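Ticket #247: bound-state structure for magnesium ion.
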Amino acid sequence: MTTSEQIVIALAGNPNTGKSTVFNALTGLNQHTGNWPGKTVGNAQGTFTHRGESFLMVDLPGTYSLLPNSADEQVARDFICFGRPDVTLVVVDATALERNLNLALQVMEITDKIVLCVNLMDEAKRKGITVDTERLSQKLGVPVIATAARQKQGLKELQDALFDVATGRVVPKPLILRYSEQIERAVEQLEAEIAPLLRGVLNPRWVALRLLDGDHTLLEDMEKYLTDDVLPLHSVSQGVSPSWPQA
Ligand SMILES: Nc1nc2c(ncn2[C@@H]2O[C@H](COP(=O)(O)OP(=O)(O)OP(=O)(O)O)[C@@H](O)[C@H]2O)c(=O)[nH]1
Ligand SMILES: [Mg+2]
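RESOLUTION: The complex was predicted; output attached.
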């Protein structure tokens, strides 16, 4: 990213966590919000300026996972993987943190450039739930900002965090989930073969995990979005998923 370019922010999160409310508050646009899941369907885009930088924000559909079981999940995953966002902002619900962190951990497997927004802090307070954002940030290794987007609280801090990660002033070091020894061994082998083919475009550990998982949609999407020089992955993946032992 250079100063003359727009900073691209992908806005991800479970349904109904306030992504579009954050999006509207920051961009001044009016994406439809409401209290039922799945309202945001396309990739709504809006811009804002902060500390002299221009940001382009892309409001993704709400998803519980990035394993492409549905069109929405594939849209969200594809944008995070192939849309080259400078930062992925994951909005989570402070009142259901444990469930919401599942998606955050999945994003953290794909990219380091992530900011976590713990929204609905007013609701959490009302329910007697406290969230120690500093400790959460230490544990996860990524910036964590508390917001109450409907009340426009915490948004300036959120913009600062996005700015810091996008410009490299803050370099997140996301917690890496470790799987069973058997899986880790398989990942290690596969990762070594994949890494040179990917040329830094995607995180090879994550691609290795997806191939082991038998996720063929990822290969199809790579064909769609990436140039020829990263395609020989098909040969690496042949026979991988059915033949690897299950953990
Ligand atoms: N109390 C409170 N309500 C909020 C806050 N942020 C958003 N909401 C409300 O939560 C509901 C869902 O907000 P949306 O912004 O539509 O959520 P979303 O994540 O975009 O939802 P999907 O597009 O379905 O994934 C709306 O009724 C918002 O007004 C907040 O910080 N506090
Ligand atoms: Mg929305």
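RESOLUTION NOTES: The CA atoms of residues 33 and 237 lie 41 Å apart.
TICKET STATUS: resolved
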